[in-house]
C-alpha cells in the first residue's frame, strides 16, 4: 500500500480514509508478527515434548462484566494436561511488561480455577508468571512435558476470590478495549 506524502487531503472523508489505511496496514503488520512469535513458541513447546493435542491456539472466552457488558477475550497458546489448562502464553511484538497484568487477570477469570502459570513473550525475551503467588521470572524456560507431568499432582487448581473477581474482569475488559482500536473500521 502506498500512502501519498506531503498531500493535503481534499476533504475530511479523504483524510479519514488515509488515516484508516495507515492504521489497517499497521494492524496487519502487527498481526503477522504475532503469528510469527506464536509459531516460534509452538516449535519451542514441541521441542519440550508437548504435542499439538496438548495445545489450544487462540481460544476465545466470553467474559461477563455486568448485566449489560460482556466481551470475548483470547490468548495465543494454552497448554492443557490431563484436562486442565496449566499454562497460558501471550505473544506480543512489543512491551511484554505491560501484558503481565493482562495475563494475571486472564488466568484468574477465564476458567473456573486460576490457570497456575502464564508467560508473556516477544519470542526473544519472556516473563513466566506463577499466577497463584504472583512471582514473575524473566526467562524463556518452560518445563518439559515430562517435568510438568511430575509436578502436576502438586499443582492447586483453586478458584479466584469471588469478591475480587469483578475487579479482575474489569482489568481484562480494559485491556480488551485497548487492543480493540475504535478506528479499525474506518
TrEMBL record:
InterPro entries: HSDR_N. Residues 41-143 form the Type I restriction enzyme R protein N-terminal domain. This is Type I restriction enzyme R protein N-terminal domain-containing protein. It comes from Thermodesulfovibrio yellowstonii.
Amino acid at each position: 500500500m502506498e500512502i501519498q506524502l506531503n498531500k493535503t487531503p481534499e476533504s475530511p472523508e479523504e483524510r479519514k480514509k488515509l488515516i484508516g489505511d495507515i492504521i489497517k496496514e499497521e494492524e496487519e503488520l502487527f498481526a503477522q508478527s504475532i503469528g510469527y512469535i506464536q509459531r516460534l513458541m509452538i516449535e519451542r513447546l514441541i521441542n519440550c515434548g508437548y504435542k499439538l493435542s496438548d495445545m489450544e491456539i487462540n481460544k476465545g472466552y466470553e467474559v461477563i462484566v455486568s448485566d449489560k457488558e460482556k466481551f470475548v477475550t483470547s490468548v495465543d497458546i494454552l497448554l492443557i494436561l490431563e484436562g486442565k489448562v496449566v499454562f497460558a502464553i501471550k505473544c506480543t511484538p512489543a512491551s511484554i511488561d505491560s501484558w503481565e497484568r493482562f495475563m494475571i487477570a486472564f488466568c484468574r477469570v477465564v476458567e473456573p480455577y486460576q490457570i497456575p502459570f502464564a508467560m508473556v513473550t516477544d519470542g526473544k525475551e519472556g516473563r513466566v508468571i506463577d499466577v497463584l503467588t504472583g512471582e514473575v521470572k524473566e526467562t524463556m524456560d518452560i518445563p518439559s512435558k515430562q517435568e510438568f507431568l511430575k509436578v502436576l499432582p502438586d499443582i492447586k487448581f483453586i478458584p479466584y476470590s469471588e469478591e475480587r473477581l469483578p475487579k479482575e474482569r474489569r482489568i481484562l475488559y480494559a485491556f480488551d478495549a485497548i487492543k480493540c482500536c475504535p478506528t479499525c473500521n474506518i
